[in-house]
Amino acid sequence: MKEPIRDPKLEQFFRAVNAVPARNPARMEEGKKAFMEEARLGKASVSEMPGSRLNQCTTFGKERIAMWKIAGALMIAISVLLGGGGAVVVGAQEAMPEEALYPVKTWSEDVRLWAEGDSLAGMDLALQFADRRAAEIVHAMDADLTVKDAVIARLMEEDDLALSIAAQAGDADAPAALDKVRTRLEEHVRVLDYLQAGAGPDESALLLQTRQEIRQRLELLNGDLRDPQLRVRILEQVQDRENRPEVTPAGQTNQNGNEDAGQGAGPDSAQGSGGGSDTPQGAGPQAEGTPAPGGGNGQGSGQDPDCVCPTTCEEQRAGGDGNGAGGNSTPTVEGCVCPTLVCTQQKGNRTGNP
Amino acid sequence: MENPKERILLGKLREFDTAALETVYDRYSPGLYAYACRVLGDPASAEDCVSETFSRLLKALRFGQGPRDHLQAYLYRIAHNWITDLFRRGAPFEIPLEEETVSLPDTTGDQAEWNIRRRQMHAALRRLTAEQRQAIVLRYLEGWDNEEAARAMERPVGAVKALQQRGIAALRRMLVREEDVS
Fold first, then answer.
1. CB–CB of A38 and B58 under 8 A?
2. What is the domain-level CATH number for residue B24?
3. Best of A1, A7, A17, A225 to mutate (most B CBs within 10 Å, chain B)
4. CA A314 from chain center: how many Å?
5. Is residue A59 a contact partner of residue B44, using CB atoms and an 8 Å limit?
6. Is the Cβ pair B51, A9 closer than 8 Å?
């Protein structure tokens, strides 16, 4: 029973939109077919028991926690065997990446993350460790040391871990948790902005890429954090990143043994090889000529300070030469060699050249 | 509404059971189409809204999320969010000509005048806040009661009533006064 509008004049307007045109049966059938097909594909990608998806050990992915569980158990066992491990671990907490105790520091962090699991405390811990990575980058820049790729990669992983925990929190907790992640990510961008000013060409490219990576995460976090669909999109984005091959700032692709990562199927169903094969197998609509991560020859050195490089993926795509010459995935803008930004939507376009 | 049958249906949905998926599509897609059409005024966009709504449902299920209860409210919330995003992106407001062939609900009025009213109403709905629009459409066009609307909007019933009142007042200002002036 529809609520009557007590104003007769206004009611006429309501009546005017109440009748809707009959639905086109062909379009309806088409929509249903598409839905059922998407469901079929979705079913294939979801294991029967949700719990079993969390018990696999891989380097990347939602199973990261499970990986840390195993790493943590090994760490504890080694500590017990060697004795005095606790003192070493405590001593290692201030270690910097160039120091011998740094691996102990990261191991101990893995153990603590494992202990917290995917609780909100785990998210806080991941953010705390991401702050450490930012501090390590600042230290490296201050000390004129090379910023290690591993530190950057870890920063991104910890940010993603925090994001995925926050996005999977319940309806009541997720908005505040995501807001907290957003605040930290914004702080990381500010730190990188600050460092960018005093960076040399090599560090500049790395910092620019890292900043773009974080901004990519922030884009979604600027939406309505109460929206459950937004949280799904965040999880999808994290999953996309986890499934893509690792790309170094020089545009080289590293495979990580993840069997899905080598397929490179993109949104347009382009089948990039990306599995270490020398022969490009890309056959998608944009398989050739589109600047994409992982297919390039790496960036050049000695960047002209007057160069205007793309700062977003859209700009990067617009700025690429688009002719696919030489399979160089580093976009050239006005004769400048710019760092390659990592754009997840370009996954399927890799040519497979290592 | 929430009942044991719906709970079973939701359980099967989470398992991607084909029959359950078909049932859900057949049961809710016509209503979602009508809802989107009433707000957007464009059948093609309404179909897009339905497709995207069900696609987002599948994505949510894939991530172990999605509705635990009140499936209908959940689907309408997705559709509302999709429409709000569309409006925010500044999609052009255009009702296709063929849509004008929707016949008058009765024979007493003038078709041209009726079409003008429809356009004015669509434009006015678009100018409401997203929450006012949702509250108005669910209550006065879809015929939901306040409790159902509150569930779809994830707001208390009192807040939904307040949104309806403010929405109606805004529509009156936009439509009735304009008409009086003209």
1. yes
2. 1.10.1740.10
3. A17
4. 17
5. no
6. no
Q: Which residue, chain included where needed, has tokens 């300070």? A: A305
**Min Cα separation B4/chain A (Å):** 23
CB of A73 less than 8 A from some CB of B: no
- Taking CA–CA distances from B172, the nearest residue in chain A reads A10
In the 3-class helix/strand/coil scheme, how is A286-321 assigned residue by residue? CCCCCCCCCCCCCCCCCCCCCCCCCCCHHHHHHHCC
What is the rounded CA–CA span in Å between residue B59 and residue A234? 11
Contacts of A168 in chain B (CB under 8 A): 63-65
Look at residue B167 and tell me whether its pLDDT is greater than 90.
yes
Q: What is the pLDDT of residue B33?
A: 95
User: How many angstroms away from the CA of A21 is the closest CA of chain B?
Assistant: 5
Tokens linked to A280: 């490009």
Q: Answer whether B102 touches A (CB < 8 Å).
A: yes
Last residue of a domain, one of B55, B82, B102: B102
Q: Do A248 and A254 contact (CB within 8 A), yes or no?
A: yes
Q: With CB atoms and an 8 Å threshold, state whether A1 touches B143.
A: yes
Q: State the complex-level ipTM.
A: 0.84
* A44-95 per-position pLDDT tens digit: 655 444 444 444 444 444 445 555 556 666 766 666 556 666 677 777 777 8
> Touching check for B73 and chain A: CB below 8 Å?
no
User: pLDDT at residue A344 above 70?
Assistant: no
Put simply, whether B159 touches A (Cβ < 8 Å) is no
Closest CA to B96 of B115, B79, B117: B115
The answer to whether the Cα torsion of B35, B38, B43, B44 is positive or negative is negative
d(CA B146, CA B161): 7
Q: What is the CATH number of the domain that holds B165?
A: 1.10.10.10
Q: Which helix (H) or strand (E) holds A273?
A: none
Chains A and B form CB pairs within 8 A to the count of 135
Quote the mean pLDDT of chain B.
Answer: 85
Domain positions in chain A: 54-116, 118-246, 290-299+312-345+350-354
